[in-house]
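User: Run a structure prediction on this.
Assistant: Running it now.
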Amino acid sequence: AKLKSLELLRLAGNQIGDLPDELWTLPKLTWLTISGNDPLRLPKLERRVPTIGRSALESTGDDESSFLGAGASGSVTRRRWDDKEVAVKVIRGVTSDGRAEDELEIYGAIGQDGMQNRVVGCLAVFEDKNEGKSGVVMETIPPGEGGEPLEDFALPPTIQEVTADRWPANTKRVYDDDFVLNAMRDAVMALSYLHDTAGVAHGDFYAHNIKVDNASGRLYLLDFGASYSKGQYEKKAEKIEVRAFGVLLQELLERRKQEADRTNEGSQQSKAIKLLEDLIPSCMDKSVASRPSFGELREILF
């Protein structure tokens, strides 16, 4: 009956043996991770990519020019492997999101199939026991329309925002109907792939964990530091993540309205935008079990 305003909960890397049913009914819980709790006996996922030595990764230049980005669970640099340019993420040992070995397991299970489903999976994993470093070899994200590189969809929260992403002004991006619809279609494609095919909950579905094409809205979901194998919590975990999808949808529609007001098109509304607006109440339903599945959302949006 308590914790009705709780939105984010990190329980990874403990010795939790059971999760109360009440946890899965909290009306605002949106971002949850439970990985690394061995007593929960979450199913182990099959690794579908090779394990390589870190020495197989070749440098492509100095550290500054090779740097691609960093997040809570590690940093990403450009390297060469198997005669092609790749992105390599070195995963930190333990963060508030989870353990390195759990993130490696998720990446290995997603494998190479992710990209066609708008998820940045991996080509290989590496574990250097001498240096105590492990990580993943990923495909580089293809450029967007006009050859422009994809950018972070938003910036992560600070202590002031707590759970809300930051959306700085971006003159290269127009939140029109096509942009918003493309983004949400790719988002539901990525999430339905994770939940229905890989058996994984992302745990941190935020705009700051998404790369987007500013011209079209096409996107890729990345970063599995908070992800977990769902196991016996399959349906419950999905319904929590549907709320995260609803949060992103709401944020994008707010920016679409601001764009429409700026261009004096506020009174015009396409059928696609009306369809998206109608999804918000169901995705954020206080009755968690009543929320749609990602499979149902995919049918609606496609």
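The chain has a mean pLDDT of 93.
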